[in-house]
Amino acid sequence: MSNEKLKLTFATSDYDHVRDLTSGRVQVEGVELNCLTMQIEEMFYRFINFEEFDVSEISSGKYTSMISQGIDKFVGLPVFPSRVSRQSSCYIRTDGPVKTPKDLSGKTIGIPEWGQSASVYSRGWIQHDLGISLSDINWVQAGVNQPGRKEKVSLNLPDGIKLSPRSDKSLTELLIDGEIDAILTAHPPEIFENKDPRIDRLFNNYAEVEKEYYSRTGIWPIMHLYAMRREIFEEHPWVAMNLVKALTTAKNLSLQRMLDITACRAPVGWIFHAAEEMRNMMGDDFYPYGIEPNRKTLEAFLIYGFEQGLFHRKLEVEDMFPKEVLSEFKV
């Protein structure tokens, strides 16, 4: 009987909670990983379009949109390396007409892609929390910092949604020129990062706003997950759970570091305080993987994506993942 391990290529962005896997400290049982730490947009593009990696981080929006269209070339794992609340992701012109969330009604808002996971949650917040119909907004799609970005997935937009692509200008240029009133984007405008006074966040107290939203709704937005090429899963179905186990172990080691007040494990002041606050708010496993701890967030995501025409049919959470990883064993 051969003891040779299955060799797989694993692509991911650089996360503290994944680093013990990519460094080799944590092993995937039966698997030898060739780990590639990559820039997010490049990784997504190469995996979705060319399937260059056996296992890769992937946009939850694009992955779920493909499932809704019967495109099953990837098999998702309920492991979510990137979660970001998105009230922090609304950018406005400081001398523009948007001063409060309610001011978004009737305005023109830019998005990098309708299918971007961050945009799905942001639009869900606008519709379900602010009570503003998405048809009351003019939507413009373009690159945040560079013109020419295109939608990556097929859309099934509902009646009344006004979405216009722009290839001649970036969203930042459109905002500065007064052609749009706000931008919803995961990646901040470059000039905002460079502290240009013409652009600001809608919420300067975004942390308080996002924590209140989570406390009230139980929704903590999931941006990315990991997925396998279907051929790998069908030939080696055991790999899925072994990957989940290893990624969970790496994550748990990261949480232990964040809660270690003996020494600062990350170059961020008060990191222990932030981790302790999260634990008090969310429980001991304050960055949970798996289905059940994340069901409320995933169900909201599936509702938003279907309402917004990104998902072509109604989906259940169980439609996103294979049965082999829908539950976990207990000892």
Question: TL;DR of this structure?
Answer:
The protein is an alpha/beta fold and 331 residues long. The chain is built from eleven helices and eleven strands.
Describe the structure.
- The chain has 331 residues and is of the alpha/beta class.
- It has two domains: 6-83 and 222-323, Periplasmic binding protein-like II (D-Maltodextrin-Binding Protein, domain 2, 3-Layer(aba) Sandwich), CATH 3.40.190; 87-217, 3-Layer(aba) Sandwich (D-Maltodextrin-Binding Protein, domain 2).
- Helices cover 34% and strands 15% of the residues.
- It has eleven helices and eleven strands.
- It has helices spanning 16-22, 40-50, 60-68, 117-129, 171-176, 190-193, 206-217, 230-235, 238-258, 271-282, 295-307, and strands spanning 6-12, 31-37, 55-59, 74-77, 90-93, 108-111, 138-141, 162-165, 182-184, 199-201, 224-229.
- The strands form two sheets. The protein has a six-stranded mixed beta sheet. A five-stranded mixed beta sheet has the order 2-1-3-11-4.
- Helix 1 (16-22) packs across helix 9 (238-258) and helix 4 (117-129) crosses helix 11.
- The longest helix is centred in the C-terminal third of the chain and has 21 residues, at 238-258.
- The two termini are 29 Å apart.
- The mean pLDDT is 96.
